[in-house]
Amino acid sequence: MSHRTTLAAALLGTVCILPALAQTTSPPAVVRQEVGNRISENIPAIPPELLERLNRYQNTRGAGVAGWTKNGCLLIGTRFAETNQVHRVCQPMGMREQLTFYSEPVGGVSPAPVESSLDGFVFSKDKGGDEFSQLYWFDNASRDVRLLTDGKRTQNSGALFSRDGKWMAYRSTARNGTDTDVWVRDVASGQARAVVTAGGSWSAMDFSPDNKTLLVMKGVSAAESYPGEVNLETGALTMFPVDGGKASFGGFAYSHDGKSVYFISDEPLDGVAQEFKTLRHHDPATGKLSVISKGIAWDVEGFSLADDGRHLAYVTNEDGISRLRVLALPSYREVKLPVLPVGVFGAGAFSADGNRLALSINSATSPSDVFVIDLPKATMARWTQSEVGGLDASKFVAPTLIRYPTFDNVDGRRRTIPAFYYRPANVPAGRKLPVVINIHGGPEGQSLPTFNPTAQFMANELGVAMLVPNVRGSTGYGKTWLSLDNAEKREDSVKDIGALLDWIAQQPELDASRVGVVGGSYGGYMVLASLVHYSDRIRAGIDVVGISHFGTFLKNTESYRRDLRRVEYGDERDPKMAEIFERISPLNNAAKIQAKLFVAQGRNDPRVPYTEAEQIVKAVRANGQPVWYLLYADEGHGFRKKSNNDYFGAASVLFWQQNLLNSDD
């Protein structure tokens, strides 16, 4: 099952930086403060009344399902203190029993198969956001935790059990620190060996029922991946043919009897190129290929197979909204389901008997919670109800989906960009609303109408509208859309923000003179680039773990990510591409940034190194701008600890209050 996230990957490599432009004014004095792991520069003290207003919004939480236990309980991830931890719930709206207790967040939870002799789960955890995650075993009987991987500066993730629990596959950089290989561990002896060492980034997908083979996938980019199969007895790796030579694949799994496979792909069908990824079934014995989701003009995001082979569930992403379908096998007859809330969710996890499907559902007005569908009864029960800080959820603002015209044409018509529009309720007649544009990362991410406490606070408490666009290069809108910002076309996505500024100026309820922009990771680059091009129309911007120079980014990002990012952004070793990086990188255009700027960063970020933040802060301050800067020594690519995120959230609101909400410059 694929997962979307709001703060996505990073970007690019070597290129010398142009000399700083001559200073015409002395840089303003920097007011620096160190409190524990937090370093802040030029950030004023947060007023107590602001902290009080924010408190309830910052105490919302969600819950996500990880899978079923042997005794019919559910493992979920949720936060009750600083970080997300593993909990267990055994009945609808039952008590949540916390199982892990760490200062670092826990993720990647994989319960042992119900039919195995194991009773526990594997989880992953890193240190301070460095993403060098290790795998651990939690034993339910003894409550002991045991380290399974090397504990070194390696990245380990994607734990996958065989159906009998005798083997565990996972992905790891342990061999050379750069390539992500597939490893298989003998659960009984603890012996592990690399079974795919072909170079690049590989993942384990599914064990065959007899444990003789393992489906694997090599990922190159969001638009390119390659499936294969490893013979676990001989070590032979066989790559499957890819129709058209190049395609994007999603999930890959054996059928219940192991004789055929289900998979997600955008390969051509009958020689016709496909824009979207469909769910397919292939039977090697007959050569028959069935397109299960035929006729749905949207991506299939993920699927789940019941252990007993009777049902298959899959989810499509339809303009940012999830649609779940459950099919009876082998007929593919669609099973009647209860009415599901409009929201975002995955394909879920089947119970051992195949009669129940657990899934997490998130909506714009409700945090993620766990629900269980009873398939024979076509009913649904809520298993968790996460807190919303004591707020009145009926007052939360649901966004509307708008489309605005941008600069280029498709088939003789102006191309349009989708965006979610959070508009405050009960706005007095004649009042123009300030606007914040929130840009996702990736760049192959997608902004979705999920619960966003910041958007709710801005709308309900400050009267600020928020626009969340999916500019070209976003996933979810087909492979052509995904490719529209690649390499030398990078700044076309920035032009989409310029077009959104034009759209804002045409809306009678929006104040085009008070526009701010915020984004993380690649979205941080988009913030900086937008300020370079549109400082005359944007008052202020918040750059979170963003790229300031594609060349230095590629040079300093962790080696296991470098080739993946070169596919998307271009190869800095190519002189032509290096010249483009020099021309478009915000660092080399810092003199054009005249809007107010707030930069926030994690010191341990392996994706976008903290040096990207420090160099843009220094360069913009050379313009005479008193940039706000926040650095956490115990965070990486984003802020995962509640106290850290709370302070950043409060500082962000204060930044908007001082630089956006005031009516005068």
Automatic annotation (TrEMBL):
The keyword Chloroplast does not apply. It comes from Lysobacter hankyongensis. Keywords: Hydrolase, Protease, Serine protease, Signal. Gene3D superfamilies: alpha/beta hydrolase, TolB, C-terminal domain. Residues 450-660 form the Peptidase S9 prolyl oligopeptidase catalytic domain. This is S9 family peptidase. InterPro entries: 6-blade_b-propeller_TolB-like, AB_hydrolase_fold, Peptidase_S9_cat, Peptidase_S9A, WD40. Residues 1-22 form the signal peptide. The keyword Mitochondrion does not apply. It comes from the Bacteria.
